[in-house]
Design goal:
Two copies of one chain form a homodimer.
Chain A: H1 16-34, E1 39-40, H2 42-49, H3 53-61, E2 67-68, E3 72-74, H4 75-86, E4 94-97, H5 101-107, E5 119-124, E6 133-134, E7 137-141, H6 145-151, E8 156-159, H7 163-175, E9 180-183, E10 196-199, H8 202-218
Helix pairs in contact in A: 1-2, 1-4, 2-3
Chain A binds a DNA duplex (22 and 22 nucleotides) through helix 1, helix 3 and strand 2.
Amino acid sequence: MAGVEDTAVRAKQIPEAAVARLAVYLRVLSGMAEQGATTVSSEELSGSAGVNSAKLRKDLSYLGSYGTRGVGYEVQVLVSQIERILGLTRQHRVAVIGIGNLGHALANYGGFPGRGFPVEALFDTDPDLVGIPVGGIPVSHLEDIPRICSEREISVGIIATPPTAAQSVCDRLVAGGVQCILNFAPVVLQVPAHVEVRKVDLAVELQILSFHVARRADRAGEAPENRGTPGLPDAGLPIDNGGTGDGRNSAGTDGGLGMVVR
Amino acid sequence: MAGVEDTAVRAKQIPEAAVARLAVYLRVLSGMAEQGATTVSSEELSGSAGVNSAKLRKDLSYLGSYGTRGVGYEVQVLVSQIERILGLTRQHRVAVIGIGNLGHALANYGGFPGRGFPVEALFDTDPDLVGIPVGGIPVSHLEDIPRICSEREISVGIIATPPTAAQSVCDRLVAGGVQCILNFAPVVLQVPAHVEVRKVDLAVELQILSFHVARRADRAGEAPENRGTPGLPDAGLPIDNGGTGDGRNSAGTDGGLGMVVR
DNA sequence: GAGTGTGAAACGCTTCACAGCA
DNA sequence: TGCTGTGAAGCGTTTCACACTC
């Protein structure tokens, strides 16, 4: 597989972490361009993007050398180069599966970020929804996922169903030729190697935050800087973990964020 | 800051990456417990969580030694230990700011994942919304964020507003004593050091996926396995961890999902 | 002088492989 | 025998510091 001959040799294998940041730089740069800026320094751009300048320069260096020493970078040039690397010069048709609260929000975008991610198909199981247009696109049934995705050349699937439905939806997306999946359901999806999955998990995010609060509380012994408001350590009630049972969730209808609660 | 700080006295300093996975293990374990499982091996648990067993064992070792050689781990014990480490034994009151599509979805949870994250306040600027209850809680005006958060002892703020409002909302949350912020708006927030921020950015996620598709297309020169009709190697095995309640989420549109578009 | 581009050091996370205990 | 717990090796990412260019 070596092949590397593609584009001029430059496939240097950009670190995954850098790819995520490039997307952020792109947004900041677009904002700057809109306000008329034509050049930026690494210091300036990194400040707005929330990283340090060394990291920013390293990241940009993966694109090639597009800066001018003593001056900075040309905003337009960076925008184009980042779009090129991220593959944003072509369209990626999107399908949203699970038209609950979250799915609705996604479908209503109409067309995603600037350019590049038009929503072209919606799916749900609910008979009351099938056939009805949401954000201009009629909702289809889950069973038609393979056919429709194939016909419309969908390349990205966004799963916003309850967790129990997620794997089967995923399988159908794969059968329909979808290569990328953004999964909002709290389940670890099983996919063939050629499919890329990214997961967004609200519960996990909240729990990570919780961890940090807890850590902070521990070492709060003598934190000098406090913010005026009291705060109260709030001892916290134990939530009786004993029971554990929590069971919840079942599949709802609303295909929504994954938690079911009700 | 280079300083050594009080070198870890008690805290073994669990790697950030491990913390995120612990939350996943917790969900899987809760599901197993619900189905009556009392013990698991690292092989089993890691399989369901989508990681390899060595990593799982290493992660669990940060909690202490709770396994039994030759046997495995007791599900209940792991659940309790992970909850302890993640600080889930106490409540973290949540406020949602920006009641658009996404905000609504979040507010309607009613109470978050299983236990621990009750939504106690909602905010928006829209006069038509202020005063109206959503998911049982009346919407308040952004101006009251500091007072209300302080009164209700909110510790987590979820920002689901349009990007332009995000920083000012953030400042008010900080003024109200909020320590953790989950940001759905596509902006890099500026916060004091004692506040923890996590960001969920739909646009970035899609662009990362786009990058991978592009890379893949490049080296598709002679990929033997193509997707013809992918038949799927059958991925499906039962994961069924589904059950546990937790949740998920994300994105919002109007409120912010983040992409700006032009 | 100002600011980029980058090798090399430092750091943190992951993987390996095996000792140790039930 | 079976599986956990963990030191140590391996790797990817971040940071440093400075040569180089405008």
